[in-house]
């Protein structure tokens, strides 16, 4: 039999046969390489393309921005933004980040890394969402639960924020408030750890080419002030319906249940949600520079 015969495979395996030793040596060398090759190919096939979400009220310029980026990704010369159109459903587009835009992940690489010299465009996905108030919850804010989401671009029309009493200012602040609250709940909720990554937010202060547009610093101050008003109003609403100020109630309040006045820095300190306000313009003379700064922010998230 195999175990007792002098010529059996089990006897030769333990007899120090040179052929068996050579075979074992080849297996020891080849097996790790084969395992590495298998998992590497599996990872390559299941590579997830990073996704960014475009939010903002109607008329802010979200669709025009996405159209411009799409044309630039197609290497069309003198690409210009198209006319803004009303979006009814989310629009998903595959884009290419120019190779001249530095990536945030490169800071972890050595200066001698040869891959840094071989520059090529980076692919990412951007989802445009409807800005109409009736479509925001189902068609826009629900997209914030995307597990591969890398960042949120909240586009605002900086030319309609010149008055704190305008309905546009209140609407923009309420929408941004709801966006940040969903991200806060996403971070503190009981969902799986895959959905708890920090999601940065870029407030793209669009239409800086217009004379009535507020500069980025003023946009930041105006939004923080208006969001504080929304936050205070909704906190009083929770108290009015008899909800006790317990831990569950604090989850419904942006920034938690603290007494500190709302600021974007509060979101970063308490929940790791960074909010940057960067000015630019999809159209006009400032279009190139504005899009460039927003693309640099996207690159920093990759």
Write the layout of secondary structure elements.
Layout: H1 9-13, H2 18-45, E1 51-55, H3 62-73, E2 91-97, E3 122-128, H4 136-140, E4 149-157, H5 167-188, E5 201-206, H6 216-240, H7 247-251, H8 264-271, E6 275-279, H9 287-300
Parallel strand pairs: 1-3, 1-4, 4-5, 5-6
Antiparallel strand pairs: 2-3
Low-confidence stretches: none
Overall mean pLDDT score? 79
Number of domains: 2
Give me the CATH superfamily of the largest domain.
P-loop containing nucleotide triphosphate hydrolases
Silhouette: elongated
Portion in beta strands: 5-15%
- Distance, first to last CA: 62 Å
Helix content: 40-55%
Structural category is alpha/beta
**Total strand segments:** 6
Trace the largest sheet across and list its strands.
2-3-1-4-5-6
- Rg calc: 27 Å
């Amino acid at each position: 039999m195999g175990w007792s015969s002098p010529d059996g495979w089990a006897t030769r395996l333990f007899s120090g046969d040179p052929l068996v030793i050579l075979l074992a040596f080849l297996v020891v060398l080849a097996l790790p390489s084969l395992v590495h090759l298998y998992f590497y190919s599996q990872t390559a096939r299941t590579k997830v393309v990073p996704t960014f979400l475009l939010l903002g009220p109607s008329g802010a310029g979200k669709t025009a921005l996405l159209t411009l980026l799409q044309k630039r990704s197609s290497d069309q010369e003198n690409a210009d933004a198209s006319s803004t159109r009303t979006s009814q459903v989310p629009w998903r587009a595959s884009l290419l980040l120019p190779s001249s835009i530095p990536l945030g992940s490169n800071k972890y690489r050595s200066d001698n890394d040869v891959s840094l010299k071989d520059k090529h465009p980076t692919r990412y996905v951007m989802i445009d969402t409807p800005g109409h108030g009736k479509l925001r919850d189902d068609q826009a804010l629900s997209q914030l639960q995307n597990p591969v989401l890398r960042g949120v671009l909240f586009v605002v029309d900086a030319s309609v924020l010149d008055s704190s009493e305008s309905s546009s200012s209140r609407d923009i602040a309420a929408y941004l408030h709801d966006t940040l609250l969903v991200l806060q709940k996403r971070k503190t909720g009981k969902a799986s750890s895959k959905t708890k990554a920090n999601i940065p937010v870029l407030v793209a202060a669009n239409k800086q080419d217009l004379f009535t547009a507020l500069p980025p610093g003023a946009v930041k101050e105006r939004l923080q002030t208006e969001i504080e008003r929304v936050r205070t109003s909704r906190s009083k609403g929770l108290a009015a319906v008899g909800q006790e100020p317990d831990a569950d109630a604090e989850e419904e309040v942006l920034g938690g249940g603290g007494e500190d006045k709302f600021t974007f820095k509060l979101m970063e300190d308490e929940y790791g949600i960074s909010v940057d306000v960067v000015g630019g313009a999809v159209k006009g003379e400032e279009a190139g520079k504005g899009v460039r700064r927003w693309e640099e922010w996207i690159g920093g998230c990759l």
